[in-house]
Amino acid sequence: MENNTYNISVFTENSVGMLNRITIIFTRRNINIESITASESEIEGIHRYTIVVNELKEVVRKVVSQIEKQIDVVKAFYHSDDEVVYQEIALYKLPTNMLASGGDAERIVRAHHARILTIESEFTILEKTGYQEEIKDLFTELKPFGLLEFVRSGRVAISKPMKTLEEHIEDMNNEKIIL
Amino acid sequence: MEKEIRGAEAVIKSLVAEGVHTIFGYPGGAIMPIYDALYDYKEEINHILVRHEQGAIHAAQGFARTSETCGVCFATSGPGATNLITGLADAMIDSTPVVCITGQVASHLLGTDAFQETDVIGISMPVTKWNTQVKRAEDIPAVLAKAFFIARSGRPGPVLVDITKDAQFGMMDFNYVPCNDIRSYFPNPVINVSKIDAAIKLINESKKPYLLVGQGITLSNAEQELVEFAEKSGIPVASTLLGLGAFPPDHPLYVGYLGMHGNYAPNIKTNECDVLIAIGMRFDDRVTGDVSRYAKQAKIIHIDIDFAELNKIVTNEVSIHADAKDALLLLNSKVEKRSHDAWIQEFRDAEKLEVEAVIEDAIHPKHDRLQMAEVVNMLSEKTDGKAIIVTDVGQHQMVTSRYYQYKAQNTNITSGGLGTMGFALPAAIGAKLGNPSKTVVAIIGDGGFQMTIQELGTILQFKIDIKILILNNNFLGMVRQWQEMFFEKRYSFTDIVNPNFTQIAKGYDIEARKIDQRTELSEALDVMLTSKAAYLLEAVVEQEENVFPMVATGASVSEIRLN
After folding, report:
1. Catalytic residue of the set B398, B421, B451, B478
2. Residues of chain B whose C-beta is under 8 A from some C-beta in A?
3. Distances from the Cα of A151 to the Cαs of A93, A134, B437, in angstroms?
4. Minimal Cα distance from A73: which residue of B?
5. Which residue, of B131, B285, B380, B392, has the fewest CB within 10 Å?
6. Is A12 in contact with B122 (Cβ distance < 8 A)?
7. Which residues contact A18 (CB under 8 A, 6 or more apart)?
8. Domain boundaries, chain A
9. The domain A4-84 is classified under which CATH number: 3.30.70.260, 3.10.20.30, 1.10.10.10, 3.30.499.10?
10. pTM flag (> 0.90)
């Protein structure tokens, strides 16, 4: 058995402390979270977390059960990398004079499908979305230009299976027993 | 429109609306408005002033378990709230419904290191089923309604509601609507009938089926359905520590108590059955021993209301996500009549080995000194197994669970999962108030008794008629036993110098007696049981007694030692 990358998607109510409630489940088991992002989902009032971990499938399955057990969690899933489409986004801040001083800045921007977000007299900001490795490749190429600042987001991932969250919730509600 | 009442009064009115009539608590600065409101509700609510907040929550746990309702406790912010944590963890792991209400500093002071401010939400998060903070008076009724619903439903557990002082002072219109549904919460699983059919097929075809039951039976009131299932299917039944009392111990199909210090036969036979049916239990490591050598030959059917428990420790052939009673009702309608006399005889044969090697000597000892088992055995006989027995943690607890015959439901109150020393005395106070007509006996070791000994003051003030039976071996006995067996008798800090317990009891106006002779035992127990008020009996027992059988850490259940 070996560790693999798993993408855990958690759908929750938007209540104070939810992030803490979810992350302590990992802390208790000494599991490192590689990345985590949170935002509103397609359903109003329901928030979505994408958590990336490197772990055994068996461990991930049990962690996801514990996450789903939390009162304010609507549903939690886990997927391997080939079951999801995922992206990360990175911003690169460079001195404008270095970019404009000839060289192959244009080639690099084109080759990496990077976008120029803004050009100010002192700095230029490039944006790149893609896999972590692609973002890193661009980082390596831009470094000689005197990279001033770099930031990369956590992963966002969408699963390939076609069942929507709304359908999941509908199924769950059809089975709900209210005493 | 005029705002009618303060948030503090809304707390009390919400509790009254939930049918709460007993609260355990301790006042302090940040919860003073709630205590002020309580002053006007003395008729409706009986508040028990404990001597430490840990006592409040253990009492609430004992109350919850004997009354089959939700325990409630109050504490102030800061140290008051942090003193609840052990009890929250205990209630969490033992699935006990408790609602804790803590006062908090005013909302404008949150995060400022104000006097007695602590992040109780953050601290209690890992040990609560749910917790929340209320900063507005108008939110109080709905939050408390949600708290009670969550604590009681599904797999029960502790809930903490932290209320800021300004919310307690704030004015609001009171309207209480009980909660019976939360959008993201599914406490009542719908049974997948195909799983029941799959289980029935395994059970009907099984030659050596074996049924393990836990507290889930008690929590879902499925005792009768369990007896019906066992009798129809002819399957032998064994119980976990918290499951004791869920199945009649004198029933011909009952084969004993599971786990580290459980009975010989039920442990050995776990690795010989062909189908293992586990209901409302969670395969704790104290039950399974080495899990890689646990019931590997058996097909496991696991029924539990908590989805996360299924396939958590063992791998199931059939997992049934269900309330125990619902599942048993379906199983009973489909299971075929069987008997497994030869298989049950195997248990009886194995049991004989334990009777000869351990039990006979334990309850009719030839040693001079009193043995714990003979004390418990005699208590069991004198109470016909029907008293509420509250135990602490350690040797006396294992001996009690081995030798007390729990014949009545909701009478076995102990700290199982967390193993909290100091649990018994306050839990017994709650247990008595939760079921006042019953005799409550708290059996406690000399070590654990001193962890919450201050609650003798609660017994004094509220005249709580509980019987305290101290089994005193002047040692932290269970640790000493392990030191003897696994640490070359290096008794590192387990010999304990005790105070004069009877004199302490007398200081609290509690009648007390100390015995150390076998000849005194019967009469002393009679006096204790017939006394009309609280009573403390200290039985000085053999100093270096070991509890056997034992499944040592890392050993398989089939390697259970008789000595």
Report:
1. B478
2. 121-122, 125-126, 129-133, 150, 153, 180-186, 188, 190, 306-308, 311-312
3. 9, 14, 68
4. B184
5. B285
6. no
7. A12, A47, A70, A72, A73
8. 4-84, 86-152
9. 3.30.70.260
10. yes
